[in-house]
Amino acid sequence: MNAPMSYLDGNAAAGELSRIFAVDITSAQGQCANCGCKKPFAEAHLYMQCPGVVARCALCGHVLLRLVHVRQRAFLDLRGMTYLSIETAQ
Ligand SMILES: [Zn+2]
Question: How remote is the CA of residue 13 from the centroid of ligand 1, in Å?
Answer without folding.
Answer: 18
